[in-house]
Cytochrome c oxidase subunit 2 (Galdieria partita), 239 residues
Amino acid sequence: MIRNDAPVRWGLGFQDPATPVMEGIVNLHHEIMYVMIGVLCMVIYILMRIIYNYDYRRNREVRKEKRGALIEAIWTLTPTVILIIIAVPSYALLYAMEEEVSPGVTVKIIGHQWYWSYEYSDYGEEGISYDSYMIGEEELEEGDLRMLEVDNRMVLPIKTHIRLLLTSTDVIHSWAVPSLGVKCDTVPGRLSQVGVYIKREGVYYGQCSELCGMNHAYMPIVVEGVKVEGYKEWIKSKI
């Protein structure tokens, strides 16, 4: 099965979800779209009926309509009920996004103008840290994605609770990876936290989603999800 974990030409939908949170976001979007289509059809029907019945060429008589308490109650309560129905799964998804679980891996992400730094502080006295820069067009190989490939990918284990700590050294950036359902601002002087649980192996692409300066478009994100055994081998190679 071909996965869509990166932007595609003429793509209009979501990238394939790789985390439970992103699956919830996609499902909630689809459910709300059905509600929106139903509301749209109802409003269009009412408008067309009003235009037809009150067309001056069809009916030149002045109609005196009385106020109806029942209809006013219906068009007031119906949107309220719809919003309550939408709010229930929305609150459940928000709770899941903010739920704190004891992490198996912690990674600190630091935004710079205009690149990313990653720090794995759980391994050894000094830990593992490295910078991630975009690969220029002249260095791309066949099959690489223009303006999305980096020299050092962020490697994370799958089926493991991961805690991401995000901050910045200069201006506000935004670390966003659509397939993982993550989009969090990195603010100077502040440490933000996001939980991630990757369900499958893959390479996931993202970009800075906050206007952070002249080279804002040149700080992509590449996350590689690997099995725990492969992650351990990668850690050993970095220590």
Q: What stands out?
A: Residues 20-60+67-98 form a domain with the Helix Hairpins fold (CATH 1.10.287.90). Residues 20-53 form the longest helix (34 residues). Helices lie at 20-53, 69-98, 228-238.
